[in-house]
Amino acid sequence: MGDAETVVRIEVDVNGRSYVLAPGQDPEDVKRRIQEAAPGTFVELALGGDRKVSVLISSGVQIVVRTETVELDPRDGEPYDTGFDAF
């Protein structure tokens, strides 16, 4: 990727619905919070390139977490940029 600034992109599928998370989040923290809410065990899998997938094995819920290192896109905003003013 050269000298371009990079960020880890996290995508979470919950029961077949996909969500791309805001940049700057820690993948391990995201998985920990999911696992606390829906007890189960994550299985880590390496994909081609610089991509990884973590699948939560649990009864009753299907959750897949994908991570990929990509070039930072200024249109993605700052980490945790919600578009709302903080109190």
Automatic annotation (TrEMBL):
Superkingdom: Bacteria
Protein name per its UniProtKB record: Uncharacterized protein
